[in-house]
Amino acid sequence: MPKTKTAGAAAALTAAAALLALGAGTAGATGWPPLQDGAYLYSGPTGSGTVTKVDLNDARTCHSLSKPAVSVQVVSGSWSLELYSGADCTGPTPYGTGSLAQSNLPWGMLSYRVVPA
Predict the structure, then answer these.
(1) 6 with 32: CB under 8 angstroms?
(2) Spatial distance between the Cα atoms of 97 and 105, rounded to a whole number of angstroms
(3) Phi-psi region for residue 67, left (φ > 0), alpha (ψ -120 to 50) or beta?
(4) Residue 78, SS3?
(5) N or C: which end of the chain has fewer CB within 10 A?
(6) Residue 37's closest CA among 78, 76, 82, 79?
(7) Sign of the C-alpha dihedral, residues 51, 92, 79, 36?
(8) What span, in angstroms and rounded, lies between the C-alpha atoms of 34 and 21?
(9) What are phi and psi of 68, to 5 degrees?
(10) What span, in angstroms and rounded, lies between the C-alpha atoms of 101 and 76?
(11) What tens digit of pLDDT does each residue of 73-113 get?
(12) pLDDT for 40-84, tens place per residue?
């Protein structure tokens, strides 16, 4: 292959890699926070807004939130969350997360408890 074709191919690959990196950075900035061990409640959709870190060692205790949780992320092999639309773990039906979850909640949640997965 002549040098000019090799240089042109290398330049095209470099430009494509730069565009892919730029696109990945933009997607990461508007998407979910990176997965990390533990459980987190967010006041905004898709892991945005105020973050509440859940103490997974405090099982079965009801915790009320000052702001409704709108999204949740859980990474735990043993624990999940029950989320409630009312304060003091009240409401018609709790929402269960599972031990590996990342989702927007169907409605604002005002309280939660840690339960075995």
Answers:
(1) no
(2) 10
(3) beta
(4) coil
(5) N
(6) 76
(7) negative
(8) 17
(9) -60, 140
(10) 9
(11) 999 999 999 999 999 999 999 999 999 999 999 999 999 99
(12) 999 999 999 999 999 999 999 999 999 999 999 999 999 999 999
